[in-house]
Write a structure and sequence with these properties.
This protein is α/β, with parallel strands linked by helices. The chain is built from 7 helices and 14 strands. It has one domain: Metallo-beta-lactamase, Chain A. It is 22% helix and 26% strand. The strands form 2 sheets. A 7-stranded mixed sheet has the order 6-5-4-3-2-1-14. A hairpin with a 2-residue loop joins β1 and β2. The longest helix is centred in the first third of the chain and has 11 residues. The chain is globular and about 50 Å long.
Length: 250
């Protein structure tokens, strides 16, 4: 079967692999634009892996709550994993060396059904227990390349600016779907995101991290214009909040 991808808003996604494994990426389900967030958390009876790109609250989101309920393993860089365990209370036995890595490293997970490679992102990564607590060092932020056996290879950019080393990604990975931040203000906006897509050359591109707050002014319409202005060949797929689509292997 096709891989199933659900967008919850901001940078939060659910991936259901061809083999039925359930992955969550940056699972802030209770964000302002997903009205069914609390209900959706209650329906997540099975989650195999929770992948987190960096330590900010709009990406760590409901990670600890979901992890404790489902016993999902935490997939993150070494410093970020340690910060989520120590500052936020993620169960340490679910955040061991098997699912902890760092830039350029690839983790083979779930019997080889999922491979996750950490790649750089230009952003920050402090982990805060609450608004009144100082941030705990979460290491450098990352993007995630998620390669699924008998399924697509997905590049989740995390929060980032455009940077030239994105051009190295297609030398090692043929990206089927690129989940790219376009909101501006805290990340790259439509123009720089379109340039990033041109460097990576994915088969499909799905915009994210926009419209959640008024300051995130980038829009899919502006992104589409910027892609066309650069003659980018990737197919643009704009998802609705809570929508599930199928992703196929290229």
């Amino acid at each position: 079967m096709d891989t199933q991808l659900t967008w919850y808003g901001q940078a939060a996604f659910k991936v259901v692999t061809p083999g039925g494994k359930v992955l969550l990426v940056d699972p802030w389900l209770t964000n302002p634009v997903f009205e069914k967030g609390k209900d959706e958390i209650g329906t997540l009876k099975r989650v195999d892996l929770i992948l987190v790109t960096h330590g900010h609250s709009d990406h760590v989101g409901n990670t600890v709550e979901i992890g404790k309920a489902t016993r999902a393993k935490l997939v993150a860089t070494f410093d970020l994993s340690a910060a989520i365990v120590s500052a936020l209370g993620y169960p340490s036995e679910l955040a061991d060396m098997d699912t902890t890595g760092h830039m350029g490293g690839t983790l083979s997970l779930l019997g080889g059904e999922v491979a996750v490679t950490f790649v750089p992102a230009w952003h920050g990564s402090g982990v805060s227990k609450d608004e009144n607590s100082p941030p705990v060092y979460g290491g450098p932020p990352s993007g995630l390349i998620i390669a699924l056996r008998e399924g697509p290879t997905i590049y989740h950019t995390g929060d980032t600016d455009l940077f030239s080393d994105m051009a190295l990604i297609p030398r090692f990975h043929e990206i089927d779907a690129m989940l790219v931040c376009i909101g501006d203000h805290f990340t790259m906006g439509p123009a720089r995101a379109a340039e990033a897509v041109k460097l990576v050359n994915p088969r499909e591109v799905i915009p994210m991290h926009y419209g959640t707050f008024p300051v995130l002014t980038g829009t899919p319409e502006a992104f589409d214009r910027e892609l066309k202005g650069r003659n980018v060949k990737a197919q643009l797929r704009v998802m609705k909040i809570g929508e599930t689509i199928g992703l196929s292997q290229g």
